[in-house]
Amino acid sequence: MQSVTNAQKAQILMNALPYIKKYSGKIVVVKYGGNAMVNESLKRAVMGDIVLLNLIGIKVVLVHGGGPHIKEVLDRVGIESKFIDGLRVTDAETMKIVQMVLAGQVNKDLVSLIGSMGGNAIGLCGLDDRMIRVRKQSDDLGFVGKITSLDVEIIQDNLDKGYIPVIATIGTDKNGQAYNINADTAAAEIAGALNAECMVSMTNIDGVLRDKDDPSSLITDLTLAQADELKKEGVIAGGMIPKVQCCIDAIQAGVKKVFIVNGMVPHAILIELLTEEGLGTMFVNKYSEGR
Amino acid sequence: MQSVTNAQKAQILMNALPYIKKYSGKIVVVKYGGNAMVNESLKRAVMGDIVLLNLIGIKVVLVHGGGPHIKEVLDRVGIESKFIDGLRVTDAETMKIVQMVLAGQVNKDLVSLIGSMGGNAIGLCGLDDRMIRVRKQSDDLGFVGKITSLDVEIIQDNLDKGYIPVIATIGTDKNGQAYNINADTAAAEIAGALNAECMVSMTNIDGVLRDKDDPSSLITDLTLAQADELKKEGVIAGGMIPKVQCCIDAIQAGVKKVFIVNGMVPHAILIELLTEEGLGTMFVNKYSEGR
Amino acid sequence: MQSVTNAQKAQILMNALPYIKKYSGKIVVVKYGGNAMVNESLKRAVMGDIVLLNLIGIKVVLVHGGGPHIKEVLDRVGIESKFIDGLRVTDAETMKIVQMVLAGQVNKDLVSLIGSMGGNAIGLCGLDDRMIRVRKQSDDLGFVGKITSLDVEIIQDNLDKGYIPVIATIGTDKNGQAYNINADTAAAEIAGALNAECMVSMTNIDGVLRDKDDPSSLITDLTLAQADELKKEGVIAGGMIPKVQCCIDAIQAGVKKVFIVNGMVPHAILIELLTEEGLGTMFVNKYSEGR
Amino acid sequence: MQSVTNAQKAQILMNALPYIKKYSGKIVVVKYGGNAMVNESLKRAVMGDIVLLNLIGIKVVLVHGGGPHIKEVLDRVGIESKFIDGLRVTDAETMKIVQMVLAGQVNKDLVSLIGSMGGNAIGLCGLDDRMIRVRKQSDDLGFVGKITSLDVEIIQDNLDKGYIPVIATIGTDKNGQAYNINADTAAAEIAGALNAECMVSMTNIDGVLRDKDDPSSLITDLTLAQADELKKEGVIAGGMIPKVQCCIDAIQAGVKKVFIVNGMVPHAILIELLTEEGLGTMFVNKYSEGR
Amino acid sequence: MQSVTNAQKAQILMNALPYIKKYSGKIVVVKYGGNAMVNESLKRAVMGDIVLLNLIGIKVVLVHGGGPHIKEVLDRVGIESKFIDGLRVTDAETMKIVQMVLAGQVNKDLVSLIGSMGGNAIGLCGLDDRMIRVRKQSDDLGFVGKITSLDVEIIQDNLDKGYIPVIATIGTDKNGQAYNINADTAAAEIAGALNAECMVSMTNIDGVLRDKDDPSSLITDLTLAQADELKKEGVIAGGMIPKVQCCIDAIQAGVKKVFIVNGMVPHAILIELLTEEGLGTMFVNKYSEGR
Amino acid sequence: MQSVTNAQKAQILMNALPYIKKYSGKIVVVKYGGNAMVNESLKRAVMGDIVLLNLIGIKVVLVHGGGPHIKEVLDRVGIESKFIDGLRVTDAETMKIVQMVLAGQVNKDLVSLIGSMGGNAIGLCGLDDRMIRVRKQSDDLGFVGKITSLDVEIIQDNLDKGYIPVIATIGTDKNGQAYNINADTAAAEIAGALNAECMVSMTNIDGVLRDKDDPSSLITDLTLAQADELKKEGVIAGGMIPKVQCCIDAIQAGVKKVFIVNGMVPHAILIELLTEEGLGTMFVNKYSEGR
């Protein structure tokens, strides 16, 4: 870092000014998952970014999954993971583990890490205040839920008090039974219900690439119509489809902008939100305002 | 219930009036543990009591432990429980399980049960907003913490918004490392920090008995001085000592009244707080006001 | 009461929970008159009910008449009561007595009784803040007023501050002249203007009976359409008509539910509002929700 | 009025400016009684003054008695008035009349008059919210009360909402029994409890006169010490003593200034408070600030 | 003043009551210019009026120009004034002087004078919070601006805090360049944006005269339609046109009433707003309410 | 800037985090004068820094002088500047120019510049709300004032509403006469009255140098005791004395930290407040916390 002069440092802070101004007082939802979650050093960087955004007046909500952690505990207690169309078959026994790991381990560990960096985090899941209400998605899948309604008042209340809500994506039916739900979908719906200014989806891809083997073919901006076109053309295909779909869902739920960024890039959130460069692909409804 | 007339029902509601008046707008901390936690029907009754108290304007905070649940999971993953002087030796591996079970399973299950009965609960632990700060109690015990400071602002904020905070007793050091802490002690300190009007400690005893084999020898009221005397006399002895000590701690931390009630009596909280009878033993600093 | 066990007491309190939840924070107008007003023991029971409702977070407004008390003072000062179609002919002299008795005696006595039971009541009449504006109903009747407009802000302000408003039904014209007004009509209009959740009309009948001599023929629920039908059939007839009309007026003014209960039943309000039984006849606009 | 030019009118309004500034947002208690209460034209002038003060941002509280009105009704129902040392012997029967007349007639008539002049008045008595608590003064006098405590929160709440509280001086014991109390004393204590900026006592004298037969001997300012001296000298004597005592009581209860003015002078309050002249005698604790 | 009795003084204060009531809590914009601004004694009278209005609860905003003061300084530094169609040609040099004089001298002198009379004034111009946004009116005129948008939040915020905003009419473009703007137009637009209850335009004429040489031919009320008619008839002509136009603009911008008064009459504002007489010509949209 | 990588940018933003946290919600007073004020590019940089600090939640107050601008206008109108002990002799004529230039030109130009960069500034001087009250310092100096009292409520009110107050240092006596006051002293007293977290004094020196000709001899931290010592040693001498004295005054008035920075360094404020380096000399009362 010695090569950066004080003048450059000041200039970088100054350059962040219009972005800070744009997001100040607004809600930003960060969907956090994948490898950035497993690598301890990256995890610290992500939490640091969130604390910084919170400090400069942005209302950050962190929504996380935790597949690898769940698998680890299930393995340990000897429950075999079964999947149908990529969705985990979740019997009562499994659901109990899923809840423990997501709401008790992953969630509170993130809260604790944010706390140790000076942020004031609060760890919630869809069971708190019955925030995420679901119904059974299909009998085959067991306790896998499809969101029927969201009540984000408990998030809003804690945002208003200055806390950083960290949300484990577990749902509940009216009897209080817990359900496993898709974290991407949940993040998109929460961001929509909160009228978030933007959502940042941290994945393991650089964004939408015209040629998936060529990083330089990154598409930096997409309207919903253009995304649709790219799906038809087969550019958005395979494993990229659910990642893009989650972004489209969020835009359709009312979020103004959604960014796919690569969680393996340290401080990807800060770079995307507070510098002129940006990193990944931005989704908007229609072209109306700059990045 | 058919034998109770409408007139009697109305009279019972009327009789609750002075007690509702006394506790309305005040904070009541319920320490919940033991068998009342394992029996599903009793658990429903306790949560129902809490929802009712909340509805009639009392600010209820539920502090819980979860020893049997922890043991169950530890057994399942093949970690052997070791104890020194009744305290669980907690290595990093064990602590991870303790956190998952307390903050992810027991805590959120209680939140969910309250929710299904119409209450608005929020599940927190000492990691949230770094509420419970601890230091290592002794090197032998591993991650067993002794509370060094409490910041109950996150509880107060959520009480003010009308939520029922449900607290899992896990602590954190300044690095964000989680610690196992004694639930009784934590409840007493939280109640003190909140200036609670009273604490109800749900145990498996009827209260302080002059003759431990004679339920009719229940002592209904004790000042701190009298409790001290009874310890010297050997009336308070054995397993009763830590239960009584927790009550004394709470009084000394500034709680006005502390009740030991038997969690096996359905609706023990309601009977203790809202009827003229009362059930167990009440601790006060000095005699000054009626039950 | 010795035959009611602690468990039963707790159960009764628990059973009240959904009703408390339903009415909490809502406005309930109680129209109070007739014999329940003269019998001291019943009066205490009614005021006790009101204090309890207030304590558990229900905003209660008590609207009262006071015919027998007026008659007593008029007799005493030697003014003869004349009636045209059941309405008291009210000359200036009489009006002065009516105002004194309603606003100075009956009203403040109720306030005082509520106060002695721990409630915070405030005694108002339609002259306060010119709350109830009237015009002369007919020249023959003298100072008998018909409500032209209502400004319930003074009631709302005092409800917001936690007081129990007790309202004597006297109106004023723009010159400040006081008028005698029908208490039933005033209660219905006040309840409407306050968007009350419900009105309880305490009368000397059990409700609407299909056969007026058979208490078991009580009709427990009536929509406006059904009430209309019963009037045509002659089931609602005679002295019951004005009592029913007041309920219909309140529903039409926007009150969600109106109950006729028999004021001679001790704690009729509590039984009607907080138990599953109910007592009298409930009027609703259309069938939409349970009691 | 034709002789007053526009320029003079503007000048008079301007001259009121420092006085408006002095009292703006402050509490002024007006003690109202005697002949100014019986003469309809004077009564209108007094209520007009109060409405004006309220409009220009002064918080006015009107405390009134009503001896002549009570006497009139007692005569009419044939109850003979008895007095011991100038205090009315008040049996239960009499008290009932006193309450009716003060709280129902005089109080609400004043409220109504203020209302007809555009003010927002609320009529209260010591029974409302148990504002004025008393004990029996002596057994001989029956229900004549001596104030033991005051809770002026209900006055403060309604002042805050912009209403003009009009207070009938009736007290209550803990059982809710009403008591007759001295209006002068009550006004002084209410003014003290409200930390009033000043109290204006409307009487039938011009103020303290050095020679009671010479109006030009008016003493315009008195400290408590000077008043004491004048009592010793016999200048303050006879019927003037209780009038002066009430002023002294108010000063000792914390009111900054107390004015005795002659209620027979139209608009005496406005002249005293808003013009440089002043009218009667001003009492202060010590000399510290100008009129 | 000796000829005005106390009774007359009180009566004048009382007569002001309905007017105080009408304007209390409302916004009154005073457009201040011309000779009343140069004459020190008149200036004190105007500021005194404003302080009084503020004290009695009216929210006053003072908008001023300052032509003569600008001319004086321009002369002194040797800049020649040029005008096109009555508008000052404003080059960069001139604009610098205009800003200094209006925002630094005239504005702050008025603020200071109000302060010395006990009012709490705050001096603002269109540059503060970029309140008045303009574009160049024509290239010939240099920095003469035409208002494109107004953001009166800074005025509202300071009114809410009890200050008297004093506004110098300077505008800004998006680069922060200052512009000279017409004070009459600015006052009208500010009054409209604030939803002012009324605007008082202090000029050097008595109002609209049917015969400009006959003061007794004053027209006291005009609707917009009538004013239009008078323009066609040639009654409103010459120098009177822009003065009338400003009033019409204000009415069309939503101000309820606009008064033209002669600033040479001492306390013209008080006489116009707080006495039954009135002075000049009142403009309204349509006839709907009295003066 | 191309040599700074995204990772470095993010790191610089992250490094600012603890400093943002330290100052967030706190008041920072910037004393702005000297050459940094004349150089347009530096002026933009300073205003940009202030807008950034405001955006990230720091409450910034800008206090400015304007000696060179005053001199320019005085020269232009042919008023000769006279000084006694470095203080400008200020006759009435001169004072008028000083006020115009400071409050009308320099102040509003800064406001306008902040506005054009996206900040919400409000330009005030000591005449507004009579914020800075002074008495004549000495007869020889004319209208040069010494501060007798400060009422910073108007600054606080506008900070609370989110504005950036820009303060021209002019004072007023009780008659509303304007006075010229020392900007350094005024800034120190304003910072003290606001309980500012820190004051940044922008000067034309690098800080306190042990050897005034050797920039590397900069002393980075000084307690008041150490500063005292350096004065005795003659290290702080000559023109440095008043600059240091202003810092000492501010510390003594209760400001926690005061920084002298060189206004010629672009973004000196950001570098001093938001980076680990710092630039100039920091004054504290005693050593207690880090930079």
TrEMBL record, chains A, B, C, D, E, F:
Stored CDD domains: AAK_NAGK-C
SUPFAM superfamilies per record:
Carbamate kinase-like
What is an annotated GO biological process for this record, any one?
L-arginine biosynthetic process via ornithine
Which residues are in the Aspartate/glutamate/uridylate kinase domain?
A: 26-262
Lineage at the top is:
Bacteria, Bacillati, Bacillota, Negativicutes, Veillonellales
- Alphabetical keyword list: Amino-acid biosynthesis, Arginine biosynthesis, ATP-binding, Cytoplasm, Kinase, Nucleotide-binding, Transferase
Site (Transition state stabilizer) at K31, K243
Q: Which Pfam families match?
A: AA_kinase
Q: Report the pathway entry.
A: Amino-acid biosynthesis; L-arginine biosynthesis; N(2)-acetyl-L-ornithine from L-glutamate: step 2/4
Origin organism of this chain?
Megasphaera stantonii
Name the GO cellular-component terms: cytoplasm
Enumerate the catalysed reactions: N-acetyl-L-glutamate + ATP = N-acetyl-L-glutamyl 5-phosphate + ADP
Into which family does the record put it? Belongs to the acetylglutamate kinase family. ArgB subfamily.
Q: Which gene encodes it?
A: argB
Return the EC number: 2.7.2.8
Q: What does this protein do?
A: Catalyzes the ATP-dependent phosphorylation of N-acetyl-L-glutamate.
Any single GO molecular-function term of the entry would be: acetylglutamate kinase activity
- Superkingdom per UniProt: Bacteria
Where is it localised?
Cytoplasm
- The name this protein carries in UniProt is Acetylglutamate kinase
Q: Does the keyword Kinase apply?
A: yes
Locate the residues binding substrate.
Answer: G66, G67, R88, N180
